[in-house]
Design brief:
Elements: H1 8-11, H2 16-25, H3 27-47, H4 55-89
Helix pairs in contact: 2-3, 2-4, 3-4
Length: 92
C-alpha cells in the first residue's frame, strides 16, 4: 500500500471493485484515473519538498485533483447504481 495521501482507494473505501471496473471498461475514466494519480503524486512530492513549486502551481494542482475526483465519483456512482439495479433484478 502506498503512503501517498489521497490515493483513490483511500478516498473511496470499499469501492475498489467498482473503481477497477470503471477503469477497465471506460477509456475516458482510465485517463481520468491516470491524470488523478499523476497529479496526486506531484502534489505529494511538493508537500514533502522533493519537488519545488510555487504556491500558485500547487493550488492549481489541488483544484485539478478535486475536479478529477468529482468526475471519478460521478462515474463511480453510476457503476454502483447499475450494480444495485442488477442485484435487484436477480431477486425477481
Amino acid at each position: 500500500m502506498s503512503n501517498t495521501p489521497h490515493e483513490l482507494a483511500d478516498e473511496f473505501p470499499g469501492s475498489a471493485p467498482e473503481l477497477h471496473l470503471l477503469k477497465m471498461s471506460d477509456p475516458h475514466f482510465m485517463r481520468l484515473f491516470d491524470e488523478y494519480h499523476e497529479i496526486n503524486r506531484e502534489i505529494h512530492r511538493i508537500e514533502t519538498r522533493v519537488e519545488p513549486a510555487s504556491e500558485t502551481h500547487e493550488a492549481q494542482l489541488r483544484r485539478r485533483r478535486m475536479v478529477l475526483k468529482d468526475e471519478i465519483y460521478a462515474g463511480l456512482k453510476t457503476v454502483i447504481a447499475a450494480k444495485g439495479r442488477d442485484d435487484g433484478k436477480s431477486d425477481r
